[in-house]
Amino acid sequence: xFTSLCTKxxxxxxxxxxxxxxxxxxxxxxxxxxxxxxxxxxxxxxAAPEAVHAQATPTPSPSAAPASAVSEPQAWxxxxxxxxxxxxxxxxxxxxxxxxxxxxxxxxDAGGGLSGVNYTNTFPKINYEFVLxxxxxxxxxxFCGITFPVGDTFASxxxxxxxxxxxxxxxxxxxxxxxxxxxxxxAFEKGRWYRIRLRVMAAKIEAWIDDKQxxxxxxxxxxxxxxxxxxxxxxxxxxxxxxxxxxxxxxxxRQLEPKAGTVGK
Length: 265
Known about the structure:
With about 260 residues, the chain is mostly beta strands. It has a single domain (about 1-35, about 65-255), classed as Jelly Rolls (Sandwich), CATH 2.60.120.560. It has helices at about 15-30, 50-55, and strands at about 75-80, 90, 100, 105-110, 115-120, 130-140, 145-150, 155-160, 165-170, 185, 195-200, 205-210, 210-220, 240, 245-255. The strands form 2 sheets. Strands 1, 3, 4, 6, 11, 12, 13 and 15 form an 8-stranded antiparallel β-sheet that branches. It has a 7-stranded antiparallel β-sheet with strand order 2-5-14-7-8-9-10. The model is unreliable at about 1-65 and about 260-265 (pLDDT under 50).
């Protein structure tokens, strides 16, 4: 679990809160393809990922997303060529799994804890939007942890953490994604692609999974930071998993400008 990232945390949730989160995760996990959990998924063949890709439901263009208080954005920039790891390198987490390109996808294998990649080129600090498609290939914890800059600090957007289903931003006022106001639960199917979009403005962080908005955080007067531990190695921008093999594709970025009179909102 992501809660094992460090031996010390600033705050520990009450026993009652953990019981509630655990119960929610178990309830959601029971709704997601229970038969698939009875048998280990075989190692993907060369053709299998292509089959999943071909059957995936087409997703709308990121440009169709609500513009909020953003003026005309710049064009989308691809961060992954689908052929090589150019622009990316394996993050040197202890016991990490390897990263490679397979059937046009950036695949990170499960390790003993965190595994992932860092983006090696320049990345904006504020007023930008990032999008990718992600799927959990093996494992049951988070299959997409996006560590990203928020001005002069950093945060992580966690998808499917804490054993299956927690979604949220770590950290807000010292509380991680399982504890703070961005925390929610969502069931995730193994082998299914999810479109994940993150928008970072001067006073707001927003995130969507497919067409559902899951984070709408006003950051004014809030302390945004990374959770203590190895996740620091993902700075300034990186993708990670926890004891889970994941595949990512269609990784893109565009810079945004706030509308006049609505700076960052």
